[in-house]
Write a structure and sequence with these properties.
Elements (H helix, E strand, L loop, with lengths): L2 H12 L5 H8 L3 H13 L19 E9 L4 H10 L3 E6 L6 E7 L2 H12 L5 E8 L6
Antiparallel strand pairs: 1-3, 1-4, 2-3
Helix pairs in contact: 2-3
Length: about 140
């Protein structure tokens, strides 16, 4: 990976839909060269995919929670996989911090979040503790 590849990544991180022609112009190379570089970054697994950024409120989800989940030690991978399968869990991470698992949970309101925590996550066998933190504002 060289400086041009790094610049391509920087541009795509800001907007994954940036036209290759625009990237080429900014880098002073041909569109074909940019296409080849992007394909190479994908084949190496550096670029794993492209995603959408959604406005959760406009979709009807008024509450986002970064939720820590503590589990029985021998159950944490199984529980993380179960959490991954729930539609309300937008992201699930295995972590080494205060909690074994962190999940980004989207809920319509506080009542729905409470039900998700108590009736869905809290009832998974092996879950010891669920610690939600409501996101007030996303800065980056």
């Amino acid at each position: 990976m060289d400086e041009k590849d790094a610049k391509i990544i920087e541009i795509l991180l800001k907007d994954a839909r940036t036209p290759l022609t625009k990237i080429a112009k900014e880098l002073g190379i041909t569109e074909a060269a940019v296409r080849k570089r992007v394909k190479n970054l994908e084949m190496k697994g550096i670029i794993k995919g492209y995603t959408l950024l959604l406005d959760h409120e406009k979709l009807g989800y008024g509450v986002v929670s970064l939720t820590g989940v503590d589990t029985e030690p021998d159950k944490f991978l199984e529980i993380a996989k179960k959490l991954r399968d729930f539609d309300f869990a937008r992201s699930v991470y295995i972590t080494s911090g205060d909690h074994m698992i962190m999940a980004e949970i989207w809920a319509r309101d506080g009542d729905e979040l409470a039900k998700i925590i108590s009736e869905k996550i809290g009832k998974i066998e092996g879950v010891r503790r669920v610690c939600p933190a409501i996101v007030l504002e996303k800065l980056k």
